[in-house]
Amino acid sequence: MAGGNKQNIGGLEAKRRRRTWIVVTSALVVVAVAATAVVLTVKPWTEEFKHGGLTVAAPPSPVKALPQVQPAPSTAPVPSKAGLAAALAGVAANPDLGVFAASVSDGETGEVLWTLDADKPQIPASNAKVVLTAAALLALPPDHRVTTKVVTGSAPGELVLVGGGDPTITNQPDGKGYYPDGPRLSDLVAQIKNSGRPVDSIVVDTSLYSGSNMAQGWDFRDVAGGSIAPIDPVMIDGGRLEPLVEYSPRTETPAVDAGRQLAVALGIDPARVRLGNAPQGSTQVAAVRSAPLKDRLRDMMVHSDDVLAETIAREIAQATGNELSFAGAVTGIVATLRAAGFDMTGVTLLDGSGLSVDDLLPPRLLDHIVAVAALPNTTVGQGDSHAPDPLADLLDYLPVAGATGSLAGRYTVRDRDGAGWVRAKTGTLDVASSLVGYVLDRDGRVLTFALMSNQRLPEASRPALDAIAATLRNCGCS
Known about the structure:
By secondary structure, the chain is α+β, with helices and mostly antiparallel strands. 26% of the residues lie in helices and 17% in strands.
């Protein structure tokens, strides 16, 4: 991920509480030097070997990589329902899946091909972010940004840092923080200094958000564990105490800490930072803007960033006329998807990130969202029949098996047939694991899926989920 050196903990989502290769051969030794391969043909224990009788092969011809992106053929055969059921029977019965529910659909037509308790509400873990992302793509323009401002205070020398809902500001000396293209605290400092205003104290205004900054079903120990920070409308590098480390412990007071870092950068005693509200009629002194929504959604999905998810959820709340709280965000998400024609029966959400163990989603809904995103020429929520499907971008935000984000460490040892072919959002809590995305099967057909395991530890359930997605890749199943 650009913008800093990050520690990915094996490329997997952190387990939340709720929890030199050497080959010895006697016949052939291959030595690679720069772009030239020198092949040493050796006959062990012979006079030739003792006296250096070696044969040097000519260097190989250069090879030019020609990467291409091609659409899946619409004429590829569709797996039969019976064939798919037969192929999945064994892997779907694995006891390591615990309480398991799933849905698989055809990405070309949206037809549901296989289900197992698909209406059963399950704890989704981070696959709640699939629902969040779909709502964000429907409710907000892809270039939507949020603004963090500094305005004049109520007393001479006082400035107010007004939170606008951006946790991606960085105070790294080189300006390259955890989030790519995140705004820089140094830009605020430069604008303040250029204004010529004397400054001796900082007020931090967090009034944009209402209600608790910790959701029902969260464990406060996850703050120190690095999964979440209290959700304030202004943060530095997502509240990380080690700004470039993905699962760094987080601060318990992110907004105040942001004000303190601004104060220090301005040469002010950080003790002269307090919470408060900007006065009516204040004058703007400085401002920075976040990266566009489309980029923040990508980062949120690939790296399963809970803080970024919760702040984007509040952007949905604002766009739909709801209060900027956990409850308002959930109301906005559910209303947006229902208006787009999705069946929200069985949905219980307490947050936008899926960190709450009280969240419940049926696999039917998650599979339907990905299937609609995959359908050609769909117009979800669009009055113009020629308008592009806004959900299509969701497919590009999914991690690639064995390669990127929270799937980088999976499909590398087991189920390697799925590596590079499975693209899916992961979800991991101590009480639940899920995998939602799509795969190109052996016949070239796109299959979407939602696989949800509850009541098993992820050490057992995640490999079992991976095996199902790899089976879909190998299917053919016509």
